[in-house]
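Help needed: design a sequence for this.
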């Protein structure tokens, strides 16, 4: 055997050994608790979905799945933390529509959503719901438009912060209806609810997962959903298109990613196990009851979704004039 032949054989053996180790490590993974990290507070839609999914993953993996809420800067604080986490699979990032919006809303971010993360799967999509304080003297979107035009700058709407999907939905509404509403930004939508319940603010577009219980309890009245079809969990609530605004659609979403550089065998395992959880009838039923549409697609499909969403929301940001330096 020549020296060259020996070196080639050794290299091949080394590669095979490394592959064997990688598969062995994947078979044992996880050997410690796993975090699901995201940039939104407890009781947000992302939090509700993460806890449902995390419980099932914990049972499947035999390890604790810790929900790590890191709200701040429109979700970008948690996003930056996740991007800098070790690329070992023990930090799963739940990205949202906020990441697609931030790509054009912020002049500078401490992370790059497309470059710093490896997509796993789109977990779920959710419409927003236009809700009002019950004391507001309108029963539907048509009456709301008429009331707003008769009372310019006297109606206000809350959001989870400048440039969030619920803020931009309100700006889209203003643009399409020619109404003058006052935007009030909060540090997360849960903080806006107290003022909405008390009548300090009149309206809000919020994620159906977070707002459904408030609707069913009678504390808020729904006027429309922002999806193309009615939400099965709120079948009597019309879409914005049915309410007289054709083409008005603003769907929120949640997807799983890991820091770039995470070994592909671990990425594949997380994908397989997460999709298996999302296909469980009880998970579909639990999240569907809140208005979420469970997805669980391929890594490639979710990567394409991310690119398309960044393009779509960049137009909404530009049209709204919103910008954060």
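Sure. Designed sequence:
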């Amino acid at each position: 055997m020549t020296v060259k032949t020996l070196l080639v054989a050794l290299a091949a053996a080394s590669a095979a050994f490394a592959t064997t180790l990688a598969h062995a490590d994947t078979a044992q993974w996880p050997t410690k608790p796993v975090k699901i990290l995201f940039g939104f507070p407890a009781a947000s839609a992302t939090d509700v979905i993460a806890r449902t999914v995390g419980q099932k993953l914990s049972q499947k993996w035999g390890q604790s799945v810790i929900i790590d809420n890191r709200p701040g800067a429109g979700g970008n604080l948690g996003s930056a933390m996740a991007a800098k986490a070790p690329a070992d699979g023990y930090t799963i990032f739940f990205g949202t529509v906020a990441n697609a919006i931030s790509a054009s809303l912020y002049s500078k971010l401490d992370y790059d959503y497309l470059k710093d993360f490896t997509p796993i799967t789109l977990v779920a999509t959710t419409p927003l719901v236009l809700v009002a304080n019950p004391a507001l003297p309108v029963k539907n979107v048509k009456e709301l438009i008429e009331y707003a035009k008769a009372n310019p700058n006297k109606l206000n709407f809350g959001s989870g912060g400048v440039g969030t999907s619920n803020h931009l939905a309100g700006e889209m509404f203003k643009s399409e209806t020619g109404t003058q509403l006052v935007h009030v930004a909060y540090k997360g939508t849960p903080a806006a609810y107290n003022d909405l319940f008390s009548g300090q603010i009149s309206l809000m577009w919020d994620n159906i997962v977070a707002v459904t219980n408030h609707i069913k309890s009678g504390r808020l009245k729904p006027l429309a959903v922002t999806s193309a079809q009615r939400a099965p969990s709120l079948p009597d609530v019309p879409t914005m298109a049915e309410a007289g605004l054709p083409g008005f659609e603003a769907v929120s979403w949640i997807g799983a990613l890991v820091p770039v550089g995470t070994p592909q065998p671990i990425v594949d395992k997380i994908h397989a196990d997460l999709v298996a959880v999302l296909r469980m009838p009880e998970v579909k039923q639990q999240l569907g009851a809140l208005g979420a549409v469970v997805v669980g697609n391929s890594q490639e499909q979710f990567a394409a979704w991310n690119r398309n969403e960044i393009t779509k929301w960049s137009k909404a940001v530009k049209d709204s004039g919103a910008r954060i330096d």
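The longest helix spans residues 3-28.
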